[in-house]
Amino acid sequence: MSTAPSAPLLRVSDLKVHFRVADRLVRAVDGVEFEINAGECVGVVGESGSGKSTLVRAISRLMPNLPLDEVSGNVAFEGRDIFAMNDRELRALRRSRGFSMIFQDPLGYLNPTQRVGRQIAEALSPDGRGRPDRVRVQELLDEVGFPDPARVARRFPHELSGGMRQRVMIAIALASDPKLLFADEPTTALDATVQLQVLETLYRLHKERNMAVAIITHDLGVVAEMCDRVYVMQTGKILETASTVDLFEKPQHPYSARLVSLSTHRLHGAGGPE
Amino acid sequence: MLRFILQRALYAVPLIFVIIVVMFSLLYLIPGDPVQALVGDYPVPPAFRAAIEEKYRLNDPFFVQVGNYLASVVQGDFGFSYQHQRPVLDLILERAPRTILLASVGFAVAIPLGMLVGVLGGTTTNPSVDKFWTTTALVAYAVPTFWLGQLLVMFFALRLGWFPTQGIGPLVSRAHGLDWLLERVRYLALPVLAFAIHEGMRFARIMRASVIDTLAQGYIITARAKGLSRGQIIRRHVLRNSSLPLVTIAGYAFGSALSGAVLLETVFTWPGLGLLLVDSIRLRDNLTVIGVVIFSAFAVILMNLVVDILYALLDPRIRTSG
Amino acid sequence: MTELTTPNPAQTTLSRWRTTVGHMMGTRHGAIGTVILLLLAMTAILAPYVAPYTPLQQTTQSLAPPSAAFFFGTDNIGRDLFSLLLYGAQSSLLVGLGAALAALLVGGTIGILAGYFRGRVEVVLMRVIELFQTLPVIMLVLCAVALFGSSFSLLITAVALAIWPMEARLVYGQYIKLREREFIAAARVADLSTWHIIFREILPNAAQPIIVQVALDASIAILIEAGLGFLGLSDPSMVSWGQLLFVAQDYMDSAWWMSVFPGAAICLTVIGLNLFADGLNEIVDPRSSRGMGGLQ
After folding, report:
1. pLDDT tens digit string along A43-56?
2. Chain A CA closest to residue C286
3. CB contacts < 8 A (A, C)
4. Are A13 and A74 in contact (CB under 8 A)?
5. Which has fewest Cβ within 10 Å: A62, A211, B126, C103?
């Protein structure tokens, strides 16, 4: 439980997640070392199937239902072993000053039969005691950039656009005032202009709240916008970690070099976000 | 929303017409004397015969007869039952409330039962618990209601004497208050049990599939990430969303239970619409037979309409886009 | 034809079916269901050879309880109930199978037409299916049988009429889904005949869910047939389990065996068919059999 002052917010060592799909062993995450410091923004980059989503799901203990073959390794959040926590401790961490998560497809991750405001209120007080805190809900909606929070709170998810839904997801994630936010492909499902707006919002929140953010993406452009440091991941393994600047200037691994050249190509070709 | 309701209602109208026409055609197709087919096995004096031929225009072409019958049904005239010496509509209106009573109480038991079993099986982390409920539901669903009814009567009514073997109880009861209620419950218990086990297990199978489907949705992950407990997730996110398919199925089933309680009512001699139908079939009281079928079809269609509206109310995706 | 690289997943049909049978015996439900169905089929076929009495033969004892002489007792007119049950398997299985196959024929045709050709055909046919699903078909069946008298073929037709929409919907869904797949597009490019695409390319891939539905249809058909028999509306020239329960209704206070055994026979058959369908389903869609993993 001892937390040295210099210890990172999250430290993952030798994480392995193996599962079976149709009698085949898949080593989705295979011996990953990973760190995030408080208030830092880190990118995890890799193509689809590289295991990056499984990595954050495993860290936050939000694995989908699969026949797991092996989950091993050590995940320490502020020095506490997450894999050793019981349900109650884990829930406490998720409810307050722990970590939150947003996802690629916000429509699927919002309950279609409940109004947005209620879903945010639920994250504010998960036990549902007392009256739902309308003011806090609207503050959160305001913080993620809605000009008319009261109106949005009364909407159902299907009545909002993709970008608005992702903002709602962010508001839900912020409700627990997390020290760390995992963003799993937060902009992949969105239009290009909306992508940029959502990223800007994330960046602003990261700075304003001094909240650590881990962005999982296949798009190096996203990383270039936001992150201090990058992990490059392929087939379950971390190939390289470097500061964003270093990675773009002198990638160590040939795979990283290819990703970089592809993305700079696209950035220039598409006019780029900068 | 209003447009949605109107649209569904308009769609129901031709259905009812089709049913009336089909039923009358069936009557028309019965071989032998058409007057006898309308009256059933009942002696027909010549004066009656002329009146019936006149009323149903039996000497006119088929489509005139259908149109004529259609017109009278629309005006609420289902004909006259010569067996019962009463208008068919009177008979139906007397019997219908009893069937509705049986079906309502049956559903009031079957739906919670089905939901409970379905949620237990669908949410458990223990595969053998799931297996147990799945197998129970499968076996219980395979038991025909009428046979289950016979078993219940033989054991609880004849062997143990706890419940009456048949009927709906005295029409005029001396008991009051709680005693009156208990008396009703005693007569209702066995038929409701037979009904609830069969239908409840059917609902359980649907509910389980639906719960499993809901649990695979992304918003369950979101709920976990919010730090909700298992019970909170099930109560707030799983129950309502997985009940949606059940609403549809249970609603349709309620409609057909109003029309299809035939077997159950026969086992328990419950004097509802179903028993009226069976008796009329035996007596060849065909006007009553057709009247009951048309009335039941009407009930089914009405229930389906109600279900569609209810569904729209429960699922905001339909409500706000209609 | 080297450009036809998208293979039809069901191309190795024979070996696939062989493994299906193997898997079937591997799942507990599938194995039990298959065994029950085989036993029932044997019973129906062998009934005339193994039954101690013929269905019409009356012994001197009426309402005799189960004993060594009469395993399941005798009925009100002294017929041996055990023999009646063996013969009853014939009509139950025939109606179940006959109605399910008839429903497959009608529902399958309509489902294929609507699902493969789409367009206006689809709109009209879906309306027809919907119409039949809204009709209180059981009641119509009851009326038809009541008004026209009960014959075996009418019974099968009537029951098939009640269940075909489910089959039609399933086949429709399968064809809608499969016609968009790549190997079908490839088959179209290769100029294969529509007939060939429908029956040789798509059908093998849709076969398993269709067979599951046929098994479920058969179980419902058997329940409907039993119900009609229970109302005294079965074909009088054949022994049927439902008919036996109809008679038993009047002897509930004196001869429990008249009710218990025929009812159990119906249950066993319906359970067998459902287990069989379950087992098959588990192979097609392994997800359906899973419990829930960690909610935490």
Report:
1. 999 888 788 888 98
2. A22
3. 11
4. yes
5. B126
